[in-house]
Amino acid sequence: MKLLKITKYLDVSPAFLGFFCAYFYFDPAQTFWAFFLSAALHEAGHLIALRCMRVRIHKLRLGLTGAVLYTPPLAYGRELLAAAAGPAVNAVCTLAFLHIWPRFALVNLLLLFYNLLPLYPLDGGRILRAALHLLLPDNAAVLVEKILAAVVLAAITAAACCLTCVWHAGLWPVILCALLLLRVTGTVFPPRRSCKSSHRANLQK
């Protein structure tokens, strides 16, 4: 019965399983366990924040581009708190394990930076969107978000192309940039939203 209850709330895509296996077998930097522990703690931060706010969680989906938590619509204040909880856990782990487990601390730091990119639906994009709508009229908030997203995406794409073509860093910068673009496609320039939004927590990992 417990297994059936877990599978009801957990949706794992074949792409995620493929990524999981590939990462396990092709991991020259030996960051597999550090990464997945960091990612699990990140998602736990979101879950704890949502539960503390008594928000019902419908499903957790694990896909190639990250983890998605499905909940009822959240007011922007709650959205901001829920989105910030995951990166906050990574920040605490970075500081707490800096001298005890440096590799784990580094992975948490990278996850922290990635998730705080101001691109929806990453946590940074959710925080930015919620804060803008709390501080500005809806039209102004949407405009500022789109401008910032366009600038950040252009800068990341240019940096990835420069690293690959000029600095000969291999294809990894371009591949990672493509995965990021895949993650935000269709959501980074969303239609105008109402005063509530649904929370989707992210893993990248």
Question: What does this 3D model show about the protein?
Answer:
The protein is mainly alpha-helical and 205 residues long. It is 63% helix and 9% strand. It is built from 8 helices and 5 strands. It has helices at 2-9, 14-25, 32-52, 76-96, 102-115, 123-135, 138-165, 172-184; strands at 10-12, 59-63, 66-70, 73-75, 196-198. The strands form 2 sheets. Strands 1-2-3 form a 3-stranded mixed sheet. Strands 4-5 form a two-stranded antiparallel ribbon. A hairpin with a 2-residue loop joins strand 2 (59-63) and strand 3 (66-70). The chain is globular, with a radius of gyration of 17 Å. The model is unreliable at 192-205 (pLDDT under 50).
In brief, what are we looking at here?
By secondary structure, this protein is mainly alpha-helical. The chain is built from eight helices and five strands. It has helices at 2-9, 14-25, 32-52, 76-96, 102-115, 123-135, 138-165, 172-184; strands at residues 10-12, 59-63, 66-70, 73-75, 196-198.
Strand runs, count: 5
Poorly predicted parts: 192-205
Order the strands across the largest sheet as they lie in space: 1-2-3
Tell me the structural class. Answer: mainly alpha
Count of alpha and pi helical runs: 8
The helix-strand sequence is: HEHHEEEHHHHHE
Please summarize the sheet with the most strands: 3 strands, mixed
Question: Strand fraction band?
Answer: 5-15%
Radius of gyration computed on alpha carbons: 17 Å
Ends apart, CA distance between termini: 31 Å
Which percent range fits the helix content?
55-70%
Q: What is the overall shape?
A: globular
What integer is the average pLDDT?
A: 86
